[in-house]
Specification:
The complex is a heterodimer of chains A (301) and B (296). Chain A is an alpha/beta fold. Chain A contains 12 helices and 8 strands. Chain A has an 8-stranded parallel sheet, sandwiched between helices. The longest helix of chain A is centred in the middle third of the chain and has 17 residues. Classes of the chains: A alpha/beta (301), B mainly alpha (296). Chains A and B meet through helix 2 and helix 4 of A and helix 3, helix 6 and helix 7 of B. The structure holds zinc ion. The site of zinc ion (ZN) has 7 residues of chain A, from loops.
């Protein structure tokens, strides 16, 4: 089975992850712009981060035969630094229509402050202007209120729910998100928050329509294989292959495909791993290593 | 120039894509604004086909090189040509807007966008402002970006100073680029470069590494003792392509017959060079083909 992990922060992951993801069937990934743990103090840091997302990280993924896409945006945490936020807003128009940029994201609420709302509105308007999907981060604290407030703001700006993926849902938020016509994404964290078993329950209740499973793997404890692992668990639990394929591949493809920047033939026609390809003179292979051999030794069962 | 390029783009591009581009150009001519320009420049990827190579007939080629000698769009993809067309509109917006916008684009460009930006340089105004950008660009190790600055373009030949020129040629050799596609190798040859190239050859020989015969082309007008002894070594090489370099210099660039003693070692190549069957271009093409075949 093929997988599309529509939320994963690869800049924080190792090549081991790339190898295991490729071996497990992950053909494409979407990397949302986000907070990097350490708050940024200069607008230029965002520029270099965005350049990494459309540049070196895309190349790094390609070395493992994985197609890398991204969403570009100002995350809610750093929206609270107004000076920085204004600078980032000026930068965004340079990036959002680039090749492989499949939406504005991840944006939304964190502490649900006034500034967060201002920049959510501005970026939602930008997405409308550029006709792009939106990837929404919902707050970890007071999630339900924050999720509803997010949808209220988006609808007030005039966004089409079918072009918005609301992420980090749980049992408390999924119904209203689906009822209002949005895509509902679920982040599978190991041990905490939403584990794989709870996801199976949600699938039993809501089926596969407009539901998306992602890993949101980042610099914290998380699992870059969350999507294929959850798929395996769903299969064991008797969820239909069709529904599994929808939530782990087809749905994110449809949702973000509305950008016109994400197409199945991007990876179906890819010529595969080319270890001779260089980026800035670097290859990720060292000492004459053969990538196929390196990957074969890492196949997970 | 913009008209002509649009006409070439129309040979292959979808009508919908061309309409979109022409609409945008018309809007920008009424009143230029940065944000829509950014959207359009990046957004080329939403409308055109990067797999599609533009087709250029003889008449197109003649028109282009008449307007800007040395400029060609042969083998460009649609993204590249559409973006260069957009940059020509940007170039009409006054120096400050043009340079500010261009700098913003370069600092945030993905690989294909960088390729397009540097490809447009021979057509743009204020070359003195563009030279530092191009020279910074040559520091890249992304081959496509380097090629857009250095190969099949008259910009470096016309505007780089000797230091910039020499660095570019050395780097082209260092990363195995086909030197025959660098315009101006003869006119821009200089002693300092010839000496640096000789040193590069010695370093490579010492490391047991390959030295491209194209390296000697820029040394041809400077047959110093050192370079003559280098060429003696090249003439003894068993590879006919290595001998060819010596033959080409002996046939075309050696009025004082300083290489007379080497002529016997390269006799058959010398015949070809004198008859014109062998030129730096045919040698470069053969080497490039061999390199491509080895990579495939
Ligand atoms: Zn995230």
């Amino acid at each position: 089975m093929r997988f599309l992990d529509s939320h994963v922060h690869m800049v924080s992951r190792t090549t081991d992850d790339y190898q295991r993801m490729a071996a497990a069937g992950t053909v494409a990934i979407i990397e949302p712009s986000f907070w990097q743990g350490q708050p940024r103090t200069e607008v230029g840091s965002f520029k270099d981060y965005f350049n990494t997302l459309i540049g070196f990280e895309r190349f790094r993924a390609s070395q493992f035969g994985i197609k890398h896409y991204c969403t570009i945006g100002l995350n809610p945490k750093e929206a609270n630094n107004e000076r920085l936020a204004e600078g980032v807003m000026e930068l965004l128009p340079l990036y959002i229509c680039k090749e492989g940029v499949v939406g504005i994201g991840e944006i939304g609420f964190d502490d649900q402050t006034k500034l967060e709302e201002i920049y959510l509105r501005k970026q939602a308007a930008l997405a409308l202007e550029a006709d792009l999907p939106i990837q929404i981060h919902t707050p970890h604290r007071d999630k339900k209120t924050g999720t509803i407030r997010t949808m209220d703001v988006l609808e007030d700006v005039g966004c089409d729910p079918f072009k918005v993926v609301i992420d980090h849902n749980n049992e408390e938020t999924v119904k209203t998100v689906l009822d209002r016509g949005y895509w509902a994404a679920f982040t599978i964290y190991p041990h905490t928050k939403l584990g794989n078993e709870r996801m199976v329950q949600i699938m039993r209740e809501y089926g596969g329509e407009r539901i998306i499973v992602d890993s949101a793997a980042d610099w914290g404890i998380s699992d870059a294989l969350a999507v294929p692992k959850t798929a395996a668990l769903m299969k064991e639990a008797g969820i239909s292959m069709e529904d599994i394929q929808r939530v782990c591949y087809q749905n994110p493809l449809i949702a973000y495909g509305q950008s016109g920047q994400l197409k199945e033939h991007d990876w179906e026609e890819a010529k595969g791993v080319d270890p001779k390809e260089l980026f800035e003179g670097n290859t990720l292979l060292r000492g004459g290593q053969d990538i196929a051999a390196a990957m074969a030794s890492k196949v997970i069962t | 120039m913009q008209e002509k390029l649009l006409e070439i783009l129309k040979h292959t591009a979808e009508a919908e894509a061309v309409d979109w581009l022409e609409n945008h150009l018309a809007q920008q001519k009424e009143g230029f604004a940065q944000r829509p320009f950014y959207y359009a420049f990046s957004g080329v990827s939403r409308h055109f086909d990067k797999q599609s190579t533009v087709t250029v007939n003889t008449e197109d080629e003649e028109a282009l090189s008449k307007a800007t000698p040395g400029f060609s769009v042969a083998n460009w993809d649609e993204f590249r040509l559409a973006r260069v067309i957009l940059l020509l509109t940007l170039a009409e917006q006054g120096k400050d807007t043009f340079l500010e916008t261009l700098n913003a684009l370069i600092n945030t460009a993905d690989i294909r966008e960088q390729v397009a930006i540097f490809s447009a340089f021979p057509l743009l105004q204020y070359p003195e402002e563009l030279v530092p950008l191009a020279r910074e660009g040559t520091r890249t190790n992304i081959v496509d970006v380097f090629d857009a600055i250095a190969l099949d373009t008259p910009f470096p030949m016309r505007h780089f100073d000797d230091e910039g020129w020499n660095q570019m040629v050395l780097k082209a050799l260092f990363i195995s680029r086909p030197l025959y596609r660098v315009q101006g190798l003869e006119t821009r040859a200089n002693l300092k470069l010839a000496e640096a190239l000789s040193n590069l050859a010695h370093e490579r020989w010492a490391a047991g590494r390959y030295v491209s015969p194209e390296l000697w082309r820029s040394c041809a007008p400077f047959l110093t003792e050192q370079i003559i002894s280098d060429l003696a070594r090249v003439a003894e090489d068993e590879n006919p392509n290595q001998k060819a370099a010596v033959a080409l210099i002996a046939a075309n660039s050696d009025p004082d017959k300083k290489l007379a003693g080497l002529r016997d070692d390269v006799a058959s190549q010398l015949d070809d060079a004198i008859s014109g069957r062998l030129t730096w271009d045919t040698l470069g093409q053969d080497l490039e083909q061999a390199l491509l075949a080895a990579a495939a």
